[in-house]
Structure formats: structure tokens, C-alpha cells
Design brief:
With 576 residues, the chain is an alpha/beta fold. The protein has helices spanning 2-34, 95-104, 116-119, 142-155, 183-196, 227-239, 312-325, 346-360, 390-396; strands at residues 43-45, 50-52, 56-58, 61-63, 73-76, 109-115, 159-166, 203-207, 246-249, 286-288, 291-293, 332-333, 335-337, 364-367, 468-472, 476-485, 489-498, 507-512, 516-522, 524-529, 533-538, 550-559, 567-573. An 8-stranded parallel β-sheet has the order 10-9-8-7-6-5-14-12. A 5-stranded antiparallel β-sheet has the order 15-16-17-22-19, with no helix packed on it. The protein is globular, with a radius of gyration of 26 Å.
């Protein structure tokens, strides 16, 4: 009996001790968990750490609300700035699946381009609503589609930088006004977004205007062209509504008093910050953002310098990095990219050199592009919109917390260029052969050939046709091919270039097409003559073709029958 009582006492004591221990453990864990950031409210996760929003700056660093350094490692996912008014690739992929793949590779930020025209429109295309979560996008306006992408990005721990990439859907203007839109239209759109997303914490910044170029200046005090003054007006307007956003300011192309370098990319010239910094009401919100490309986009003179690639760090230091070195403000490279990532080609050497520069100086970036349909850079995805370009991602993973392991089956790298065409394809900044010419009205929009080489409609299949046509006169040649071919539609690209190293002053393309109706085109005007003949006239900036230069134009069309392929393709020079 006594033994039984002792056993009961021990059992009671054990449960009492267990209860006390459990209570202490619960209290401890409650206090600990209460201190953890909450993703849905004030912070966003990346692959390695947690950031508490909003972000601001301290010297050359972007920091979170607790002073922790934040490195923005991102991709550009374009499409909302084009005539589809939606991110590209949703004709083949679930948008949530796309975001998940971006996150899985170690990126923490998406630079999301849009056009002012898109956000004022109610029309959306280029989405297959039968694919997974895309059904949620059906019937929505472009702004509501953006809402869905942004909100899903937050759920997946991705930050968003909004990018005013274009005013109209057609091209990137030199200035922050033009193409039928005023400065007030541009700033009012930013005000609307600042208010609309005031409580959307994973939107961290506003990239005010993509790639000012041509007449755009810095530090000239000309109200019509001084981009620095316009950036101040827009930045302060945004902060009066939403003071949490970073204000991201790109450079210009030329027209900076006292600039040291002769050649710059559009949006890449930040030399003016040294004497004329952007003055915001909240100075700890400014981030400067150059764009940088290689010879696959345009063969700048410095790529053929005998000191290449050792001349590149000086260029980057002079053009933009001095801003971070002197702790004036952070540098975030908003675009760079290219097809070649090897250690032999000039573009591959340049791209690896820049990746090493970004890594050694601990800079943030957004790679151009996630999309494969950027014709002069290609993308991280291959043309099936599923497969990762393994060599490219291996290179970029040097900048990411997640190291990419290529698949065991070799992946064949793709290009969008016709194999029979040997001329250099112009791209992001189609410039004169030896130097930049900012005063020329023929300077094209910077996304001219990085504009999608194909924009298919929703479909169940996406296999290219075998069409490949070429035609030439004494001076000029055109090569054409079907880039995309699916059940209800197709896309065609034409590449026009000089045959004998002569300068083409003006040109015109003609072809016949029977059972098809064009619904989207780029870099040219497609006008139907009669029942089946089409006349193609380049936009003003594309009328001149320099020696060894190629102009890239194209269209997408709906099929109206089986006889839809273009034929009788001809090109000729014409008088002004």
C-alpha cells in the first residue's frame, strides 16, 4: 500500500514538473516568435534572410527599417509596357508558377515595366486563362493584372520595383513626355500608383523613367530637357503621397556638362551626379540606376580597344560607380544582359567582367531579362518559357545566394537570329557606327529590338514554322522567318540590312499574305493594300541603316485559314 502511494506521488510530481516546463517553453517561444518579422505585413523574405520594410538608404547602402544592408538581386519581367498590357509568357505559363521559379533561383526583386498607356487602358491580351491560376486574371484591367502579380509576389517573398518604361505602348521616348503624353500625365500616373499601392509593402521603389536619351540632359537647367530636374519633380510628388518608396533615377545618354566619357548607353550616363545630384525632400530615398550592355546590343568603340576588357572598370567607375565609392548614394544596375556568357566572345568576356565587378563591389542589379523574347539579349528562360538557360544562370548565380546546378542533360543555347544572316544585329541603342549621336532624331527607342520578337496569343501549341525567306536588291537584303506558330496565330520577324557596306537612307518592305489578320506589330507601320498585299514602312528612327547594321521589324497575326504564311517578300530603297 505504501509503495503504491509513493508511486502516485512520483507520478504527480512528474506531471507537475512537465507542466511547469511546458509553460515556460510556451512563454519563451511566444516572446521569441513575436520578434520575428511577419512577411505579410512589414517585411519580405529572400532566399537567405529577412528584410523589414520599408527600405531607405545610408551612404552607398540600401538598408531595411532596422539598418540591415539589403542587396536587391532581380530580374526584368517585361510585357506590361507593350500592346499586351500584361507580363509576357502567360500564354504558356501560370503566373504564380512563373513567380515561384524566379524566387527558387535566388532572386528577390522583380523590376516590372509598364506604359502609361497600358495603365489607362481596360484591354489585356496575351494570357491563356485556361492555364492554372491565370483564370484569376480573366476580365481584369491592366492595373488589376498588375495587382495580382504584385500581391502574389508578396506571398512568395518577392519585392517589386515599378518601372515607367514607356508612355505609349510603341516605343521608349527620349524624354519623360511625348508620344501624345505630357509631363503631367507621367507624374499623375506615378501619383496614382503611389496612392494605389500605399499599403502594398513589397513594392519598394519607383524607377521614374526608363532610359532618358537623345535630347535628355543633366545639369543644364533647361526645364524642357534637364532630366535631373524632372526626376526631382516626380520624386517629390511620389513622396508626398507615399514616403516609403525608394526613388530610382537612371542616367541620360549625353548632354552632361563636363562629362569625361564620349560614349554612354541610353540611361547609363550618371556623370552629372558629381556636380548636380538629385535633390529630394527625403534624401535618404534616392538610388541611382545605370543600364549597361555589351556588343551584342551595339558594338561600342571601347569593345575593340586593345586594352579591352581591362578598360571596363575605369568606364564603370567614371560613369556611375564613383557615386557609391564616394557614398553619395547606392547604385542599382537596373538592366544588363546579353546572349553570350562564355570566356571567348567579346560579349561573353564583357558580361563576365561586369558580373565580377558587381560582385566585388556588392552592387544590386536587375538582369535583362527573365523573358526569352528579347531579340538582342535573349533571357534567363529559353523559348519554351520553361527551361533555364543553364550557362547564363550559372554565371548569374555568382551574384545570388542560390548556386545553380545545371541539368544533367545538356541544354542547347538558342539565338533568335536567322542562320543565313551574317550582318550584325542592332539592338538596344541603334547608334551611328563610330559614336553616339544624341542630337539625331533618328536615334531609336532603346527597347527597339529587345521589344518582343514574338508575342503569341493564348494557345495549346507553340511550335515554329519552317518558313525562311530572303530577298535582296542591289543594296539591301531582307531575311524573314516565322518565330512562333501556334493553333490560332503566328509571329513573323524581318531583318533588313545593307549588302555592300553602304548606308541605306530609306527603305520599304512589301509582301503578300492571304488568310491572316495582323493584330500586333513592332518597329514599323504595316499597311494593307488591296486584298493581300502589305507595305511596311519603318518608324522615323529606323529609316536609316548604317553599314553592318540590321533593322528588326515584325508582326503577329491571327490565322484565318491554312494559307496564312507571308510570301513574295521584297525590299527596296525609296526616295524621301
Amino acid at each position: 500500500m505504501l509503495h503504491t502511494l509513493n508511486m502516485k506521488r512520483r507520478r504527480i510530481q512528474f506531471y507537475q514538473q512537465l507542466f511547469i516546463f511546458s509553460l515556460v517553453l510556451v512563454v519563451f517561444l511566444s516572446g521569441f516568435l513575436a520578434k520575428l518579422p511577419i512577411v505579410n505585413q512589414n517585411n519580405v523574405a529572400n532566399a537567405a534572410t529577412l528584410f523589414e520594410l520599408p527600405l531607405s538608404t545610408s551612404g552607398a547602402r540600401i538598408i531595411d527599417a532596422k539598418g540591415k544592408t539589403v542587396l536587391l538581386t532581380g530580374v526584368n519581367w517585361f510585357g506590361m509596357e507593350t500592346e499586351t498590357h500584361s507580363p509576357h509568357g502567360l500564354w504558356l505559363r501560370d503566373y504564380k508558377e512563373m513567380l515561384s521559379q524566379i524566387k527558387s533561383l535566388g532572386y528577390n526583386t522583380i523590376r516590372l515595366p509598364y506604359s502609361v498607356e497600358a495603365l489607362r487602358s481596360s484591354n489585356v491580351s496575351g494570357i491563356d486563362y485556361t492555364i492554372g491560376s491565370n483564370k484569376e486574371l480573366e476580365g481584369k484591367t491592366p492595373l488589376e493584372v498588375m495587382d495580382c502579380v504584385v500581391q502574389e509576389a508578396e506571398r512568395q517573398g518577392l519585392m517589386i520595383v515599378l518601372d515607367s518604361h514607356r508612355l505609349s505602348d510603341k516605343r521608349i521616348p527620349e524624354l519623360w513626355y511625348g508620344d501624345g503624353f505630357s509631363e503631367a500625365d507621367w507624374i499623375d500616373t506615378w501619383r496614382m500608383l503611389a496612392q494605389h499601392y500605399k499599403n502594398q509593402t513589397n513594392i519598394i521603389g519607383a524607377d521614374l523613367k526608363n532610359e532618358p536619351h537623345g535630347k535628355a540632359s543633366w545639369g543644364t537647367n533647361d526645364l524642357a530637357t534637364d532630366w535631373r530636374l524632372a526626376a526631382e519633380r516626380a520624386g517629390n510628388a511620389i513622396m508626398s503621397i507615399n514616403p516609403n518608396w525608394l526613388i530610382i533615377v537612371e542616367g541620360v545618354e549625353q548632354n552632361v556638362p563636363g562629362q569625361k566619357l564620349k560614349n554612354h548607353w541610353q540611361g547609363g550616363n550618371l556623370e552629372g551626379v558629381r556636380r548636380y545630384p538629385v535633390r529630394l525632400k527625403r534624401p535618404n530615398k534616392i538610388v541611382y540606376s545605370p543600364h549597361e550592355y555589351g556588343p551584342g546590343v551595339y558594338n561600342m568603340p571601347y569593345f575593340s580597344d586593345q586594352s579591352f576588357p581591362n578598360n571596363m572598370p575605369y568606364r564603370w567607375e567614371t560613369g556611375f560607380y564613383y557615386i557609391a565609392r564616394q557614398r553619395i548614394a547606392p547604385i542599382w544596375i537596373g538592366e544588363f544582359g546579353g546572349k553570350q556568357v562564355d570566356k571567348i566572345s567579346i560579349e561573353g568576356i564583357w558580361q563576365n567582367k561586369l558580373v565580377d565587378f558587381i560582385r566585388s563591389h556588392n552592387l544590386g542589379f536587375a538582369y535583362w531579362s527573365w523573358n526569352p523574347n528579347s531579340s538582342d539579349t535573349a533571357g534567363i528562360l529559353l523559348s519554351d518559357w520553361q527551361t533555364i538557360d543553364a550557362p547564363k544562370q550559372v554565371m548569374l548565380s555568382r551574384l545570388l545566394p542560390v548556386k545553380y546546378t545545371p541539368p544533367t542533360i545538356p541544354v542547347v543555347r538558342e539565338t533568335n537570329e536567322p542562320k543565313k544572316q551574317s550582318l550584325a544585329v542592332t539592338g538596344k541603342a541603334q547608334l551611328t557606327n563610330n559614336s553616339l549621336s544624341p542630337q539625331s532624331s533618328s536615334s531609336p527607342p532603346s527597347l527597339s529590338s529587345r521589344l518582343p520578337s514574338s508575342v503569341p496569343s493564348p494557345s495549346s501549341s507553340h511550335s515554329p514554322s519552317s518558313l525562311s525567306l530572303s530577298s535582296s536588291s542591289r543594296q539591301i537584303q531582307v531575311t524573314s522567318k516565322i518565330d512562333s506558330d501556334w493553333q490560332s496565330g503566328f509571329c513573323v520577324s524581318f531583318k533588313v540590312g545593307s549588302l555592300n557596306n553602304s548606308k541605306i537612307q530609306n527603305w520599304q518592305l512589301k509582301f503578300n499574305m492571304n488568310q491572316a489578320a495582323i493584330y500586333n506589330s513592332w518597329n514599323a507601320t504595316f499597311k494593307q493594300q488591296g486584298t493581300n498585299e502589305y507595305i511596311v514602312t519603318p518608324l522615323d528612327w529606323g529609316r536609316v541603316i548604317e553599314p553592318n547594321q540590321v533593322r528588326d521589324v515584325g508582326f503577329c497575326a491571327n490565322k484565318l485559314g491554312t494559307d496564312y504564311q507571308p510570301h513574295k517578300v521584297q525590299v527596296k530603297t525609296v526616295k524621301n
